[in-house]
Every structure is written in structure tokens, then in C-alpha cells.
Amino acid sequence: MNHKGSLLEVIDFYLVTDSGLSKKGTLSDVENAVAAGCRIVQYREKSGSTKDMILEAAQIKTLCGNEAIFLVNDRVDVALAVDADGVHIGQDDMSIDMARQLMGPDKIIGLSVSNVEEALDAERSGADYVGLGPIFDTATKKDAGDGIGPESIRFVKNSVNIPVVAIGGINKENCTSVVRGGADSLVAISAVVCSDDVKRETKSFIDTIRRVKLDM
To answer: Of 206, 133, 130, nearest to 161 (Cα)?
Structure first.
């Protein structure tokens, strides 16, 4: 794992971009989230050409600089083209082994999981962290399935030795239960990118996560 890999142990709010939901645009969202203290950004773009994705990914990498880990969702080719810090892949994407061969030993690879068995398999396969979800029902990802509930986080957290990032339907009202459930970090897409002030909302999530962790 590269020098940024150790940052996975101390991340709190995790930004996943969504150009379809964003009010101000992906680049604006990233810039404001990083300015607010976000330390990990995943570029998730499902439309547009590969050329456009590479151009935008390069701009996001610049915005992240040395402040935030920069990952690309699914697209290993885009991640390689811009020398991103790593990729986040799903259960139906290429295997972790194949992604590792392409990305190299020092890049970060995260895998989406929904239960303990998938999390254990991800760790055995060499994933650097798992994205667990959906925690709550979500409209952001149409094929996400039903929410598994914040109480499920503890089972996964106690089963693996890699960070657990919670995702799916998380907002200001329920994020405390997610952190108390054992999540190292959490993703709240619509609660942030649909807002008028991404910087303010990101900072609010970071403050809440840190406060809850201190109280635990």
C-alpha cells in the first residue's frame, strides 16, 4: 500500500461524485469537499466518453493534490490513465486479483460488499477496504437492493481487519447510528452534492463523525 494507504485508517467523510445529482458540478463538489477537510474522493461517472472521463479525472486528481486520496469507480483504465491513487470496484466488475495486476501493488483497491461473507472474501483477495451497503434504502443507486441496517456494520467490522466504509441512504438524521455501528467512514451522496453548499455540508458530516467517534 502506498503512503496514502495509511490514511484509510483515519478517514471520516468519503465523497463519491454524482454528476446527475450535483447542483454545482463535479469539479466544484470536489473542490469544496476537499476544502472542508474531506480526505478521500471517488470519481463515479456512468455517462460520457472515456476521453471526457480521463480529462475530468485528471482535473479531480489536481484538486485532491496531497490533501485527499483519489479513487476512480469501476474504470481501471481511467485510473491508470491519470495515475489515480486507486480504484473502487463492485461485485460484478473485474476481480481484485486482475485489478491488482493492472494497478500494481501500491495502489488502493476498494470493493463493494453487502455482508460478512463478501467482506471476508474481499480481505482475503487483497482489498484495502470495503464499501458496505446499502445501509439504508437508497435512490442514488438503482440496483443497490434493500437497506441492510446500521446494526449490520458491527458484524462486518468485527470480521475483517480492513476499514469499513458505510454507504447507502445515509444522511444527517441517521449518520450517528452508522458511526456508532462501527463504520470507519461513511458516504452520503445526495445529502451533500444536492445541497447548495457542499463545503458546509461536508464539514458538518466530518464534525459529526469525529464527535461521535470521540464519544464512543
So the answer is: 130
Catalytic residue selected from 44, 157, 199, 203: 44
Burial of residue 6 (CB within 10 Å: 0-12, 13-18, 19+) is exposed
Copy the grid coordinates of residue 35: 476544502
Q: What is the DSSP letter of 66?
A: T
The answer to whether the Cα torsion of 140, 25, 49, 66 is positive or negative is negative
Pairwise CA distance, residues 206 & 179, whole Å: 11
Q: Quick one: pLDDT at residue 143?
A: 67
Task: Give the list of residues 6+ apart from residue 98 with CB closer than 8 angstroms, or none.
Answer: none
- For this structure, is 124 an active site residue? no
Residue with cell 467512514: 185
Active-site hit among 39, 61, 141, 157: 141
Active site residue 44: yes
Q: Of residues 4, 61, 107, 112, which has the active-site annotation?
A: 112
Q: What is the pLDDT of residues 160-214, one digit of tens each?
A: 999 999 999 999 999 999 999 999 999 999 999 999 999 999 999 999 999 999 9
**By the 8 A CB rule, do 122 and 97 touch?**
no
Active site residue 112: yes
Q: Per residue in 123-173, pLDDT tens?
A: 999 999 999 999 999 876 666 678 999 999 999 999 999 999 999 999 999
User: Which H or E run contains 164?
Assistant: strand 164-166
